[in-house]
């Protein structure tokens, strides 16, 4: 029977280990030793869910030591052995799907239908994908490129990976960071966002129960400036992979560069949504509302700037506002809810600040307020459409990260594409048209790591996800992620057994 989650939904999963601490080091839960605590809050009610001890630098050191100790054994496992564990891991996650969905909804405020139908199945699929991909790590074919020698390429893991993840998709971000790293034979220490650690911990516990050796996956739950900075500058960490804001990504890159680490950065976005005048208007309106509101707009690829060619502009604004008004904002655990609260009251207030400032230079067509009544205690914000904001205004240029869409008109195709490219970001974009030549041009000329045509948001395990420009570099998901988490070694054998080789003339002269 599918788990419908009606019974005591606002509780941590039964049989949980959270009471033993929010760190997970060498296959065991542990308490943080920083001396400071943090409380996970249910953003739908403001109620405390769990108070835990934050990690300090000593906890990061212990986690890195555990990962370092586990590395030789895990790197030495065969691809088939690693694949077997990951297949079992996917099965354990599937057994725990109901608990994972409830915990993710509890700490983030996501509607249960989103965690059940997107976050959790996506994570299980990603795990199954990397179970298969673990057996397909490849170097180039061996050959005699230089006559008397045979060369081949070994693709090797890098060592201990130190990862830092954001709060918007805690479970999926843990999966995206951990899976390619361990499938390729690395070990890892992940620091989840300190506000939303629950499902990253559950993910690591599930890995252990699936048979992943102790120390291969470790979780340190601490603040960015303390645990995060110590992790990304740790001398025994060989690589840093970071997902989060562009501002923090810059700091992480500085710290990693100073200690000569490989760096992979998945940063912010401000995705354009370009509607050409031959587009199916209904499809574009539906796509814009879903693409802007998914996860309450707290999605790095969310549709945030709709550029609509002049003949469709007025109708697009009117219909998008009307459809937004039908979205049911409410309790994430109630079956009829489309949109839950934002992740915290502080973040809701930040989003409201963007909209309030926009009133000075643009028109708030719908939304622009927190709902009252029964929802007043939660971090809710109504779906919001802003029209008439200038291209260089804050609402168009900055990452708001809430249920807010700005819409602007454009005239010729050149202008639409130019405006789409006119922010520092380049993570994702979409083009809406029935003209194959326009679509093809948009996919070529929009500078983003993903361009959808007549859709916006879907991601799949087989395809790479990552940014251009200020949205970062490197890829999550897909076999391309192995480029980040492996290093190539050229191995060259002499086949001749000749003592004085021809090339020695360059050193010994030509005697
Ligand atoms: P954030 O940058 O504030 O924090 C991300 C993580 O970095 C957290 O774990 C935080 O504790 C840690 N951190 C903060 N300061 C640090 C420091 N000085 N050193 C090391 N770690 C530090 O981001 P957020 O608010 O948690 O998440 C939202 C951001 O993440 C948005 O910008 C969004 O676009 C981005 N994001 C990007 C992707 C992607 O794939 N490109 C995916 C999800 C989210």
Describe this structure in words.
The protein is of the alpha/beta class. It has two domains: 24-267 and 467-489, 3-Layer(aba) Sandwich (Aldehyde Dehydrogenase, Chain A, domain 1), CATH 3.40.605; 271-453, Aldehyde Dehydrogenase, Chain A, domain 2 (3-Layer(aba) Sandwich), CATH 3.40.309.10. It has helices spanning 57-76, 79-95, 97-108, 112-133, 170-183, 198-209, 224-232, 246-258, 281-293, 310-324, 345-358, 394-397, 413-420, 436-445, 482-485, 505-508; strands at residues 23-25, 28-30, 37-41, 48-53, 149-157, 160-164, 187-191, 217-219, 239-243, 262-266, 271-275, 303-309, 363-366, 384-387, 404-410, 428-432, 450-453, 472-473, 486-494. A seven-stranded mixed beta sheet has the order 13-14-15-12-11-16-17, with helices on both faces. It has a six-stranded mixed beta sheet with strand order 8-7-6-9-10-18, sandwiched between helices. A hairpin with a 6-residue loop joins strand 3 and strand 4 (48-53). Helix 3 crosses helix 4 (112-133) and helix 9 (281-293) packs across helix 10 (310-324). It starts with 22 loop residues before the first strand and ends with a helix. 53% of the residues are buried. Nicotinamide-adenine-dinucleotide is lined by residues 164-168, 191, 193-194, 223-225, 228-229, 232, 243-245, 248, 251-252, 266-269, 300, 399, 401, 427, 467, 471-472. Nicotinamide-adenine-dinucleotide (NAD) is lined by residues 164-168, 191, 193-194, 223-225, 228-229, 232, 243-245, 248, 251-252, 266-269, 300, 399, 401, 427, 467, 471-472.
